[in-house]
Design a protein that fits this description.
Elements: E1 3-7, H1 16-29, E2 34-38, H2 44-48, H3 60-64, H4 70-73, E3 75-76, E4 83-85, H5 91-98, H6 107-113, E5 121-125, H7 132-140, E6 143-148, H8 152-171, E7 177-186, H9 191-204, E8 208-214, H10 217-221, H11 229-232, H12 237-257
Parallel strand pairs: 1-5, 1-6, 2-4, 2-5, 6-7, 7-8
Antiparallel strand pairs: 3-4
Length: 263
């Protein structure tokens, strides 16, 4: 049964989609059956997986509105290593249409619960906002992964996100936990970055992933080719960092299945 992970941060431009795409590719490379769900109307995870979002007949939008079954919407990434529930601008209309829908917060959960047995990991790339799409993702997830840059304003945003997770846990998803905070786009030469990193470890302890993803030009170039960094340049520092991060995730999954994880 899959562990469902929401990759989220209410602040934009923090490497959220880059992390979702690269973790999906790396988990698949390590032998897992992986599904990546693009819940962002920008559809960047779809493009980064090598799928032309403009040519899609159906997206996760149609799954949320129960107009199409999962099997009609799910596609393969360009490399074929993982499955993708794609998105495009149609998703912007989903939130408006879901407002009046029954069980509106649970639409994604119901869709993923029906296919979870076919995967080891399901990653959800969330929009950089707290809206009904993000609420659907957090309601469906077992755990949250938070990618963040080690900057001052990121710390402020992190506090807001933690509060959001607490509210979803209290009202909609009692089992939701924060799996970990990922330090991404990290510059070791930056004194502030080191300071913020130390603050994170002091506050979140073991929930901060050991692996640090550095700023890396290959990570920035890969999406324009519709590839993960692993498939674009496996030897790059960015690809190797996400591969190590994926190994950490698998360890956390094993701990969770053994009942050793706590919210």
């Amino acid at each position: 049964m899959a562990r469902i992970l929401a990759v989220t941060n209410q602040k934009g431009g923090v490497g959220k989609t880059t992390s979702a795409v690269n973790l999906a590719a790396c988990l698949a490379h390590l032998g897992q059956r992986v599904l990546l769900v693009d819940m962002d109307p920008q559809g960047n995870a779809t493009t980064g997986s090598g799928v032309d979002k403009q040519k899609l007949l159906h997206t996760v939008y149609h799954v949320l509105l129960r107009e199409q079954p999962f099997s009609r919407v799910c596609v393969k990434s360009a490399t074929g290593d993982y499955d993708l529930l794609p998105a495009n601008r149609d998703m912007a209309g989903a939130e408006v249409e879901l407002v009046q829908a029954d069980e509106r917060e649970y639409r994604l959960k119901q869709a993923l619960d029906a296919v979870a047995a076919h995967y080891d990991s399901i990653l959800i790339d969330c929009p950089p906002a707290l809206n009904l799409l993000t609420v659907n993702a957090l309601t469906a997830a077992h755990a949250v992964i938070i990618p963040m840059q080690c900057e001052y304003f990121a710390i402020e945003g992190l506090a807001d996100l933690v509060n959001t997770v607490k509210k979803i846990k209290a009202r909609l998803n009692p089992g939701l936990v924060i799996d970990g905070v990922m330090r991404v786009m990290f510059d070791h030469r930056n004194t502030l970055a080191q300071h913020v990193s130390d603050q994170l470890k002091a506050h979140f302890g073991a929930k901060v992933f050991d692996t640090v993803v550095p700023r890396n030009v290959r990570l920035a170039e890969a999406p324009s080719h519709g590839l993960s960094a692993l498939h674009y340049d496996k030897g790059s520092k960015g690809a190797q960092a996400y591969l190590q991060m994926a190994r950490e995730l698998i360890e956390k999954q094993q701990d969770a299945s053994g009942g050793n994880r706590h919210g």
